[in-house]
Prior knowledge:
The structure holds two protein chains of two kinds.
Chain A: H1 2-39, H2 55-65, H3 76-92, E1 102-105, E2 108-111, H4 120-141, H5 145-176, H6 181-186, H7 196-199, H8 201-214, H9 226-229, H10 239-264, H11 280-299, H12 307-335
Antiparallel strand pairs in A: 1-2
Chain B: E1 7-11, E2 23-29, E3 32-39, H1 47-51, H2 60-64, H3 71-86, H4 92-120, H5 124-145, E4 154-155, E5 158-159, H6 167-189, H7 193-199, H8 207-212, H9 218-221, H10 229-232, H11 253-276, H12 295-300, H13 302-314, E6 321-329, E7 332-340, E8 348-352, H14 354-360, H15 362-366, H16 371-381, H17 385-389
Antiparallel strand pairs in B: 1-2, 2-3, 4-5, 6-7, 7-8
Amino acid sequence: xxxxxxxxxxxxxxxxxxxxxxxxxxxxxxxxxxxxxxxxxxxxxxxxxxxxxxxxxxxxxxxxxxxxxxxxxxxxxxxxxxxxxxxxxxxxxxxxxxxxxxxxxxxxxxxxxxxxxxxxxxxxxxxxxxxxxxxxxxxxxxxxxxxxxxxxxxxxxxxxxxxxxxxxxxxxxxxxxxxxxxxxxxxxxxxxxxxxxxxxxxxxxxxxxxxxxxxxxxxxxxxxxxxxxxxxxxxxxxxxxxxxxxxxxxxxxxxxxxxxxxxxxxxxxxxxxxxxxxxxxxxxxxxxxxxxxxxxxxxxxxxxxxxxxxxxxxxxxxxxxxxxxxxxxxxxxxxx
Amino acid sequence: xxxxxxxxxxxxxxxxxxxxxxxxxxxxxxxxxxxxxxxxxxxxxxxxxxxxxxxxxxxxxxxxxxxxxxxxxxxxxxxxxxxxxxxxxxxxxxxxxxxxxxxxxxxxxxxxxxxxxxxxxxxxxxxxxxxxxxxxxxxxxxxxxxxxxxxxxxxxxxxxxxxxxxxxxxxxxxxxxxxxxxxxxxxxxxxxxxxxxxxxxxxxxxxxxxxxxxxxxxxxxxxxxxxxxxxxxxxxxxxxxxxxxxxxxxxxxxxxxxxxxxxxxxxxxxxxxxxxxxxxxxxxxxxxxxxxxxxxxxxxxxxxxxxxxxxxxxxxxxxxxxxxxxxxxxxxxxxxxxxxxxxxxxxxxxxxxxxxxxxxxxxxxxxxxxxxxxxxxxxxxxxxxxxxxx
Lengths: 336, 390
């Protein structure tokens, strides 16, 4: 009987998280266009529904009815699988992210995380890197030189930035002594001064910068630099396959921000203990939205870096900085 | 059996960053560009040949469509050339209005350049800011001439019509807003570390090369050569205005960027002087050969009616001869060479367009750079395919 309850619980949680995530991704496209619009003295979408709120659905329907084209010279299997890899890996990331504290329902204690695994961080990094395979395969299999260049850039960038990204969070792991995400969040309880962002400010900045690179967003949007590669890796994709890349990208963005909230901003913990009557999910979402807003906002400001400059920045600046941060953290922890 | 080492990539004619239908064949060694071959001709409309079948006045609308960001500037180059052929002096009021409107058009052209250049390098927001300001310029131009993109405002011997009453007020309002806007763009770009990394020491064209390739305009001045037709061979009364010619030092993308930004400030000075000191008087020269008689006379006087009919239907016949005249367009030196056989249409027109010459220097600037540099360099020489292919 316990097994049945457990299964029901997991299935319900998965469905809720999946539905919320898909809705978030859909409205993220709307939010991005709207926020960028206001940054750029224009309105953004405002025709479909009030404030353009139905725009994501219109886009979805449009993408659905577009002709689904597979180029003659494409490697068909890889070409079809690539967008799937991207979206599946991005969505799967949410399995381990804790979005709230425990909840008591019908006498059962329910943890607000789908799978509370011991090695949450490793799982996230593994899957996030897997998503890059989709990009590389998609670019390569389309049989287009622009696509290939975009894919190569994506591969090079992933290798470079994954290193600094991984190093940047090791400090946090050393402080919290665990890889389990719920424990990391619990370790940051008792007020915002316990949050890791104040204990590891350099790591937080590093994480966000590398995260932007990981997401290939401005100023690191090399793989799809539209003015150079005319879309890059997804140049030959159309219809829902293109939409899948797009959704995967946005889901990945939510995931990177959610991990950042979990590791550095105290997850679902309220900023001061007195505010704990507000559900943890609300705090989690507030922090998440703030970080996502940052990701959209900076896109309106920065030009794009060049390929070699991104490599230089990653290996000769971020990587040493992450190492120094790691050593300093280790020394401080050892002395204390 | 030769081993293939380089990847050949076809950039354009449909590509978001080649500013129209330019086609570049790039030989790539990884991301490094080994060889560039520009292919032009995708936008050839036969303007020069078409002109041979038109009367002199009918050529003016064709010139709008050369560099379509600079319709008025092209009009000016053409009408000045024909006026030189005819030996007409035009009234000072017309000259001042010409200068003011041409400089406004130069600002609009530079704004398009800044917008697209910044977009090519990835700064999306600047595009929208620039187009906002370009819009206020186009409104003024539309009020004056009736057209936004293709104004066809000038006539041989003067202007198609006088400026409206609120012209001065409108322009002064714009001159009040715009310097702040340029500063805004500078805060977004000039000292931005990413912008500087993308533009400094990129696409370098030395002064010697620039001269050898026949580059002109900001592309030449960015390399440190102080050459501006408005100063060297003043036309249309430019010698009466006080303005500076900004130059760069290295000849890289950043220098060309700075030169154009400074040019925008100088254009503002010229516009201000022209509008403030706008003299009263006629807007057409007093030359019955080319200038239409006043409408009142046409309706009352049979001679005037006949003259109107003759000028409109068969045009006028300039003396036999050849004439060349160049003006400083936003992209560089725009020259018209007209051969007249004494009939009512030109025997041959050759248009020396700045973008064509500047484009020929492009491979020199790009080779050895990266793909991303190709894009920023194309943006920095500010080509318009409409005048490359004519």
